[in-house]
């Protein structure tokens, strides 16, 4: 499993864009994780699935509510990663109103989840291999904090926890 101090895996996620701009054409676009994280401080959170109850009612809305505070604490971008295809993530982004605040990144083949070692096998529930629920602060591609949830829990990967960690990180860097 990925640990604090490790570099994010060199994989490609997909992002669905509805409007053209900032190098993003309409439709699914590849996002190289390493290139996209270079030189930035990222608040990254991962969820088991788009449109699922906890993810839609609490996880994403929490990051939207704390967006301004996260930015003030030095976060350049907020990423939500899920083992769904880019079209589902695009629809979920519309539903949640994340445009311009949270990048909804699709890990359709669970490549990122497997590379981080943060998979969750929900085959018995008809969902297949998914991502565990977690959050991390990433600075220039290196994991600075990591908060992995116990199965079925939502206690440490929320926006409030990551915001406190971002503030602490910013304070220690002067």
CATH H-level superfamily: Glutaredoxin
> How many strands, which pairing sense, and closed or not: the largest β-sheet?
7 strands, mixed
The whole-number mean of residue pLDDT values reads 92
Unreliable sequence segments: none
Q: What is the number of independent domains?
A: 1
Percent helix, as a range, is 25-40%
Helix tally equals 6
CATH class: Alpha Beta
What does this structure look like?
Thiol-specific peroxidase that catalyzes the reduction of hydrogen peroxide and organic hydroperoxides to water and alcohols, respectively. Plays a role in cell protection against oxidative stress by detoxifying peroxides. This is Glutathione-dependent peroxiredoxin. The protein is α+β, with helices and mostly antiparallel strands and 174 residues long. The protein has one domain (12-172): Glutaredoxin (3-Layer(aba) Sandwich), CATH 3.40.30.10. Helix content is 32%, strand content 29%. The strands form two sheets. The protein has a seven-stranded mixed β-sheet with strand order 2-1-5-4-3-8-9. The chain has a two-stranded antiparallel ribbon with strand order 6-7. The model has no long low-confidence stretch (mean pLDDT 92).
């Amino acid at each position: 499993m990925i640990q604090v101090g490790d570099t994010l895996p060199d994989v490609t996620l997909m992002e669905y864009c509805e409007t053209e701009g900032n190098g993003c054409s309409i439709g699914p676009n590849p996002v190289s994780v390493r290139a996209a994280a270079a030189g930035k401080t990222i608040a990254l959170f991962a969820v088991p699935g788009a449109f699922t109850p906890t993810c839609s009612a609490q996880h994403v809305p929490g990051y939207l509510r704390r967006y301004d505070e996260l930015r003030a604490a030095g976060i350049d971008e907020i990423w939500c990663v899920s083992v769904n295809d880019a079209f589902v993530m695009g629809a979920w982004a519309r539903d949640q109103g994340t445009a311009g605040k949270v990048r909804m990144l699709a890990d359709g083949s669970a490549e990122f989840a497997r590379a981080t070692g943060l998979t969750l096998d929900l085959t018995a529930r008809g969902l297949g291999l998914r991502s565990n629920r977690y959050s991390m602060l990433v600075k220039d591609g290196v994991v600075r904090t990591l908060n992995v949830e116990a199965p079925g829990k939502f206690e440490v990967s929320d926006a409030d926890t990551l915001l406190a960690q971002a503030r602490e990180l910013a304070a220690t860097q002067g």
